[in-house]
Amino acid sequence: MVHIIAAKAVAFGEALRDEFKAYQAQVLKNAKALANELQEQGLRLVSGGTDNHLMLVDVWMDGKGITGKDAEKALEAALITVNKNTIPFDQNKPFVASGLRIGTPAVTTRGMKEAEMQEIGRLIAEVIHAPQSEEVKNKVIQGVADLTARFPLYPKRLKSFASEGEAMGAD
Questions:
Q1: What is the pLDDT of residues 87-129, one digit of tens each?
Q2: For residue 86, what are the domain limits?
Q3: CATH code where residue 105 lies
Q4: Could you tell me where the beta strands, DSSP code E, fall in the chain?
Q5: Are 60 and 87 in contact (CB under 8 A)?
Q6: Does residue 28 fall inside a structural domain?
Q7: Is residue 104 within 8 Å of 145, Cβ to Cβ?
Q8: Is residue 167 part of a domain?
Q9: CB under 8 Å to 102, separation ≥6 — which residues?
Q10: Alpha-carbon separation of residue 159 from 77, 106, 169 (angstroms)
């Protein structure tokens, strides 16, 4: 399967570039900043922090919090994507779970850095602490909209489309 060999060659070539190394370093810095902010906001990280791009957050808090399933749905309603996840010694069934798995590569790819991770951590914690609040949900949706507007998915493509539009006399 030559196409798989070619794909691996491209991936390894990318991994050798300085830009990729800088990106990976930023992913780790972002994960640490997000983990620290979540802890500052009163949430427990299962491992006490993170050494990689992921963190596992205990939202059940020995029955004083909410389930991972409810947290996932509340955050999704506020336009934040996370995954419910079991935690060690989980009291809930796997489909319900007691934790959330959160990663930083996607937001790092958009260009976000540590300051934005702190903002994201505060937004996540607000929803987890008040999952039924429409006021909190609307506030978080606005915060997400502000962040995504500042860090669009394809900024280079947007600039090139804007340039093409100007060249064609479009508004």
A1: 999 999 999 999 999 999 999 999 999 999 999 999 999 999 9
A2: 2-153
A3: 3.90.1150.10
A4: 44-45, 54-58, 83-85, 99-103
A5: yes
A6: yes
A7: no
A8: no
A9: 34, 38, 54, 55, 57, 82, 124
A10: 30, 20, 15
CB-based burial, 22-61: b 16+ in 10 Å, e otherwise: eeeebbeebbbbbbbbbbebebbbbeeebeebebbbbbbe
- Would you state the structure tokens that stand for residue 109, as one six-digit string? 């790819």
In a domain, 161, yes or no: no
| DSSP secondary structure, 8-40, as one string | HHHHHHHHTSHHHHHHHHHHHHHHHHHHHHHHH
Whether residue 22 is contained in a domain is answered as: yes
> How far is residue 111's CA from residue 107's CA, in Å, rounded to a whole number?
7
Residue 61 C-beta-side C-alpha neighbours within 13 Å = 11
Cα-Cα end-to-end distance for the chain: 48
Residue 87 and residue 55 in contact, taking contact as beta carbons nearer than 8 Å = no
The tens digit of pLDDT for each residue in 46-95 reads 999 999 999 999 999 998 999 999 999 999 999 999 999 999 999 999 99
Measured distance CA(147)–CA(141) in Å, rounded: 10
State the Cα–Cα distance between residues 30 and 136, nearest whole angstrom. Answer: 24
Q: How many CA atoms lie within 13 A of 38 on its CB side?
A: 29
Beta bridge partners of 128: none
What's the pTM value of the predicted model, to 2 decimals? Answer: 0.86
